[in-house]
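User: Here's a protein and a ligand (pyridoxal-5'-phosphate). What would the complex look like?
Assistant: Let me lay out the input and then the predicted complex.
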Amino acid sequence: MDINKIRMEFPTLRSDSPPAYLDNACVTLKPDCVVQAITDYYTKTPGCGGRSVHRYGTKVSRATSEARVKLQKFLNAESANEVVFTRNATHSLNQVAHGMKWEEGDVVLTTDREHNSNLVPWIQLEKEQGIDHRIVASNQDNTFNLESFEEACSEAGNRLKLVSMSQVGNLDGVKIPIKEIARIAHDNGALVCVDGAQSAPHMRVDVQDLGIDFMAFSIHKMCGPSGMGGLWGRYELLDDLRTIQSGGQTVSTSTYDSIDWAKPPSRFEGGLGNFSGMIATGSAIDFLSQYDMNDIHAHEVKLNRIMTDGIKDLPGIEIIGPQDPKQRGGICSILMEDLPAHDIAILLDEAAGVMVRSGQHCVHSWFNARGYTNGSLRASAYMYNTEEEARLFAETFSEAVHAFSAQ
Ligand SMILES: Cc1ncc(COP(=O)(O)O)c(C=O)c1O
């Protein structure tokens, strides 16, 4: 990958003093083609897709269908009808959680390091519908404990209904063995929902090869527009799902007292869609598809090694997860109980233009369970980050730690 060439495609990186943007686990920067697609929609064909048959409507319908096919190919889904446009991964996970049919006592397994978006819906269902949400504890270093998982599956017995886990954690970048997990879950009669928010942007994700049933993902973490996410599901399972937003687009017809549900994906895309977002999603997928996802991942690990090596021996800090960056992709999340993570994050930006995330990263449960009140400071790399930026992060962070420790 020619990183300098890639950088030239991002307006914010072409400026005279571009930031060292290392908050990619939250949201990525947008390349020209994505910005252009959004502008083109509003300036050239600002119509309604899927319904209106005039020129604007037809162009939008065609472009959104093409974007869906691009996503299908990117994920190696069997059909484009298995791809639902959503607002974000949270929306997608809620669609699965509140769209499935539950009986009291049905067991859902997650891990102890899930983003709130793959935790809160299950707790809500536990409180409101009596499902039994259980947590599989990770190993000490946050890696997946396959043995505990197998035990949890057999303990749940025939009440096990769903395993819902993030393939890569936003807390620590740790990847879990989804293919193996899916095999075991299926052997135990359960479905598998994958939170792919942190995997789909950074590695090859082949939903058929993984052998999973649903996957939620965030387009805005894949160089695509804000307000866009996606849900992939095996067609027959989607067809069995209740929509969480009924209305226009979700039915094939209705009478005063009856409805005929539309087939997926329309059933889940109620109301006028984010057409510019869908079309720009296609552009983001075109952009990413120029590269080998394995190269993107390898580049991120290389940068993470520079960040990790530069900070790991600092006093009063601890890297969350395994110490080897190979097991944390592009994420370097640093726990520092006696240092102010937010203040350091502000300082890094103001003093050196290094943008990172501080806080609990929507994984409050992990921090609360361990009594960590300060959260962590997280640097997360992507395809356009450079080795110089990784070094700059390590140097400025080290200086900040020394400065705050001396106070
Ligand atoms: C692992 C994980 N799951 C879910 C989400 C929620 O994604 P979205 O903001 O697209 O709803 C995030 C966002 O950071 C995440 O990192």
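Summary: Residues 3-28+292-405 form a domain with the Aspartate Aminotransferase, domain 1 fold (CATH 3.90.1150.10).
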